[in-house]
């Protein structure tokens, strides 16, 4: 089984490939770059939209995700706007801005959320699941590993940021890892229903 | 488990309740009538849209469907427009109009398609599956049972229309029956993954 990832981000493709190592699936970056306006109000909307557009244009099964950092003290910000907040600035600057906004914050609780979707345009089968990792926002930008907001997020049960902990821990416990593992556990488990259920075969 | 149906159509609620009789689920009509513009280009889009809007407003799990008659000779018409074609006219008149359009048609193949969706707004879990019943368009409007375009559709393997065959056969083989049975076979089978997988519990 070969599945395209609805993204043009090599980073993300590699991460998903590693996460899904144990499943018998070939993960490939989409052969076409397709523009999808990520203007949904929720991770679910954006995730479904990407899977749906890419799947319909490529004509084969695809996976997509939408992810972000949700900070309680900031009312959920940056949330679905995680990628677009200060879009043209490096993440380092964005993180410094977030730490500035949280200077007075005692409640530093936050979570990373990922909604992963699988869509097969041939059978109109669509499924989306959520993965969450709770944690808190650090007081400093720390660590060079990972990407995005990793260097200011300390996952529950740890003392270091995702930026310090690195890929191995992230592949185990991250929001994206949880979402994609759940997604493919489900798809693997219901393979027979889906096959039997394709009324047009 | 109690689930609301994203519809204000009593007919549909009763049909889904009968179809899902064997599953341990209480099916209820949505307590609120919510306007959702069904302007998608596919059954999947409309089905997901209804489930998503109703689910977010009601705050509990919902099911939705979008269905229609797809006629090959008419390039798939009325398809997603099945409900809106001659919207203010009785189905009888709409069926007569379709038979008129197909007067010269030798190829009378058609299918009923249903995309059923389940959405749980608390966990961002969304799933959509398709049910299809192949058949052909009759030469006359026949039978008083069922609703919509049932009296001009003869399902594969039968000689009478859905309008003549009635509810019992329809509950067995219809597009809606196939879609909803597949949907709940899947949900039942992955209950443990979904429970375990709710990272916020």
UniProtKB/TrEMBL annotation, chains A, B:
Gene3D superfamilies linked: 3.90.950.10
Segments passing through the bilayer: none
Cofactor dependence: Mg(2+)
A GO CC term attached to the entry: cytosol
Catalytic activity from the UniProt record: XTP + H2O = XMP + diphosphate + H(+); ITP + H2O = IMP + diphosphate + H(+); dITP + H2O = dIMP + diphosphate + H(+)
Highest taxon above the source species: Bacteria
EC number(s) per entry: 3.6.1.66
Keywords: Hydrolase, Magnesium, Metal-binding, Nucleotide metabolism, Nucleotide-binding
Active site positions, chain numbering: 66 (proton acceptor)
Annotated residues for binding of substrate: 7-12, 67, 147-150, 170, 175-176
Cofactor note: Binds 1 Mg(2+) ion per subunit.
Molecular function per GO: dITP diphosphatase activity; ITP diphosphatase activity; metal ion binding; nucleotide binding; ribonucleoside triphosphate phosphatase activity; XTP diphosphatase activity
GO terms classed as biological process: nucleotide metabolic process; purine nucleoside triphosphate catabolic process
Chain positions recorded as Mg(2+) binding sites: 37, 66
Function: Pyrophosphatase that catalyzes the hydrolysis of nucleoside triphosphates to their monophosphate derivatives, with a high preference for the non-canonical purine nucleotides XTP (xanthosine triphosphate), dITP (deoxyinosine triphosphate) and ITP. Seems to function as a house-cleaning enzyme that removes non-canonical purine nucleotides from the nucleotide pool, thus preventing their incorporation into DNA/RNA and avoiding chromosomal lesions.
Sequence similarity: Belongs to the HAM1 NTPase family.
Subunit structure: Homodimer.
Designated name of the protein: dITP/XTP pyrophosphatase
